[in-house]
Amino acid sequence: MSAISPSMAPPMYDREVDPKNYLKAGYGLSSWLLTLDHKRISLLYLYGVGFMFLLGGLFALLVRTTLLTAGNAEAFAANKIWVSPDNYNRFFTLHGAIMVFIVIIPGIPAALGNFVLPIMLGAKDVAFPRINLLSWYMWLIGTLMILSSLMYGAVDTGWTFYTPYSTTAGKAFAGMIPTVAGAFVLGFSSIFTGLNFIVTIHKLRRPGQTWFRLPLFLWSLYATGLVQVLATPVLGITLVLLLVERTMGMGFFNPELGGDPVLFQHFFWFYSHPAVYIMILPAFGVMSELISVFSHKHIFGYRFIAFSSVAIALLGFLVWGHHMFTSGQSAVLSMIFSAITFTIAVPSAIKVFNWLATMYKGSISLQTPMLYALWFMWIFGIGGLTGLFLGTLAVDIHLHDTYFVVAHFHYVMAGTIFVLFGGIHYWWPKMYGRMYSEAPAAWASFLLFLGFNLTFFPQFIMGSQGMPRRYYNYADQYQIYHQVSSAGSYVMAAGMLLMMYNLAASLRSGRKAPDNPWGSNSLEWHTSSPPPLENFNGDAFPGDPYDYHNLEWDEKIEGFRAKEPLIRPARVAAAH
Amino acid sequence: MSHSHAAHGHADGHADGHGHGHVGHVVPTWLLGLVLVGLLILTGITVGLSGVPMGRFNTLVAMAIATVKATLVVMYFMHLRWDRPFNAIVLVSSVLFVALFVGLAMLDTATYQDLLITPEINRR
After folding, report:
1. What is the C-alpha separation between A70 and B34, in angstroms, rounded?
2. Cα(A101)–Cα(B25) distance, rounded to whole angstroms?
3. How confident is the model over A269-282, as pLDDT tens digits?
4. Given a cut of 90, is residue A32 above it in pLDDT?
């Protein structure tokens, strides 16, 4: 700790240390790598996750490019393509493992949540700043472990590590141990973040920041935290059992050793289904912020949205069996899981209808974050509704393990990525104090939306026609769908590049951001852009985060100004 | 600067002022001793009963005794008896949660145990 106090900072940094701007509160590598400031940890996460997103995306492009042509097996035998069947299996496994465990799970909570959660509460930091930093290092170690598997030939089991294939000894599984151990360490990172957020929301709310005055993003982060703390240990247990079976030959899941492979699927999905809600719940939270702010209208049905987050978190634990309808699971259990799966559509729909009702008669501004929010409504609408097809027992027999499933979960999980991008554009001015150019940002979002639908909508069609997922070789009849799908993935890549260029350019030449460019009333927009080291230059007096009557547009600063400031000069310490 | 920053965060953060320099509930030594003796007796019973053939009830009895012991530890050694009821709710719901997971998974695997083809090596 003391190692990073300004007095001990190396003298070579002659730039002025300014606690009124967290970006200037310390210089040098150690001021970042040893920081306890939640805002800097958030940026560490943002760049780490961003880099891994690009890597995961690269593997996806390799998969899509391989699938441009039917008959890959013959082509490979004739030396016409360089991606071997084994390498193809590794590519989609790495794509899935990176995107799920390394990118989407920490994406919104650890990157965006870390930045705004304490500020929204009116606190100076999270409850356990050191655990917060530790969680980033756990993330880094887990990520490096998974990447190290590349040196051993990489795992080719798919991101689900299904037994008995994953515990069968063989050369192809040389990277299995580092990958599984890496996922285990990443689980701890996730638990630390969740625990930290739960405690922070309970204990560090400013006086006056009551539960029902919390921005809805915090309700969703709270629900996410519950899932992280309750479900992730089961992933740890499962992966340890898998490692023990693989290294010591004790039978848990492998029938040759007297184990039960379906038991592995119970264990795996008891974590991994709730993990879907770890991925989507924070996105719902960001959505509620974006929709209300850019409709300039009070959120509709605050309590319904808040409690539906908690309902989703709890119901999410009771549906894991719907991944196992065709795995030999007992019929009674499948019926129970199918029924509960339909139930969870209710709280999800409550949110969507409340967002629509918020927009109704609102004064909608179509700025980039709002565009991403609207894209999400479209994408998640399709992703959510196709989930009902898959939750239906009889239909699932036909659709299980086809591209229909692939399209469905990309429409849900990549929906989260769209909200992550929306959130990045929304909080970017707060993070860096710079505005990005609106037109390229909007074009990039449009390219991403177009590319996404081009990529995944044809997959619904070919999936319903029977194209199985994860196949290297396929029949000619599916080629046109695969080609459209691959073309879509290149459009998305172009959108990504444009988005990144535009954000990077804003740091160099963007105009200075006002404190409140969008007209939001949650606390982070009442402090300066970027915020001071301790978040507020004074005491925060939180109000209703969705009541916009206190704000007025100020042409001079090209931003909104509070008629009655919510941040007032600090009182004497004895006040409480 | 992160130093002072974090420290302030903590000092300022306790909105309810609870727990500043306040030592938690002190359990009298005699009570702790009594619980310890109880735990030792229960351990003795577990060891003793392991030699008594009761068929499938051996596991049930051992688990029941272990549950009583765990309850004693949580209530007296971990002070849950004097703690806020909310903490008890958290504990009980986590136990129910584990029961839900293990129960449903076992309910399923039990239905097809007879159908599994056990390799020769495990029959011996």
Report:
1. 75
2. 42
3. 999 999 999 999 99
4. yes
Determine, for residues A125 and B6 on separate chains, whether the beta-carbon distance falls below 8 Å.
yes
Q: Which of B18, B22, B30, B20 is nearest to B76 (CA)?
A: B30
**Cβ-nearest to A129 among B6, B12, B94:** B6
Long-range contacts from A20-23, C-beta under 8 angstroms, 24+ separation: A20/A528, A20/A532, A20/A533, A20/A537, A21/A433, A21/A528, A21/A530, A21/A531, A21/A532, A21/A533, A22/A530, A22/A531, A22/A532, A22/A533, A23/A432, A23/A433, A23/A530
Tell me the per-residue pLDDT of A506-530, one tens digit each, with 9 for 90 and over.
999 999 999 999 999 999 999 999 9
What's this model's pTM, rounded to 2 decimal places?
0.89
- Kindly state the percentage of chain B with pLDDT values over 70: 73
**Structural domains of chain A, with CATH:** 1-34 (no CATH), 35-234+267-365 (1.20.210.10), 514-576 (no CATH)
For every residue of B17-54, DSSP letters joined together read -TTSS---PPPPHHHHHHHHHHHHHHHHHHHHHTTS--
Confidence grade of residue B94 (pLDDT, cut at 50, 70, 90): confident
Kindly indicate whether the ipTM for this predicted assembly is greater than 0.90, answering yes or no: no
Please report residues of B whose CB lies closer than 8 A to that of A19. 1
Contact criterion met (CB below 8 Å) for A419 and A286:
yes
Q: Which of A125, A126, A133, A203 to mutate to test the interface with B (most CBs of B within 10 A)?
A: A125
- Sequence-distant (6+) residues with CB within 8 A of A47 are none
Contact by Cβ (8 Å): A315, A343 = yes
Instruction: Report in angstroms the alpha-carbon separations of A334 from A261, A388, B40, B105.
Output: 17, 14, 45, 12
Residue pair A317/A339 in contact (Cβ under 8 Å)? The answer is no
Token pair for residue A179? 């990958």
β-pair type (A559-562, A551-554): antiparallel
Helix (H, G, I), strand (E, B), or coil: what is residue A567?
strand
Q: What is the spatial distance between Cα B44 and Cα B48, in angstroms, rounded to a whole number?
A: 6
Instruction: Answer whether residue A146 shows pLDDT above 60.
Output: yes
Mean pLDDT of B51-79: 90
Tens of pLDDT, residues A412-431: 999 999 999 999 999 999 99
Handedness of CA A60, A452, A99, A497 (dihedral sign): positive
Contact A263 B9 (CB under 8 A): no
Which of A109, A132, A448 minimizes the C-alpha distance to A284?
A109
Cα gap B10→A126, rounded to integer Å: 9
From the CA of B124, how many Å to the nearest CA of chain A? 12
Q: What is the pLDDT of residue B122?
A: 53
Q: How many CB atoms lie within 10 A of CB B70?
A: 12
- DSSP of A425-442: HHHHHHHHSBPPPHHHHH
Are the beta carbons of B97 and A230 separated by less than 8 Å? yes
Alpha carbons B35 and B37: distance in angstroms, whole number: 5
Which residues, in sequence order, are CB contacts of A7 under 8 Å at separation 6+? none
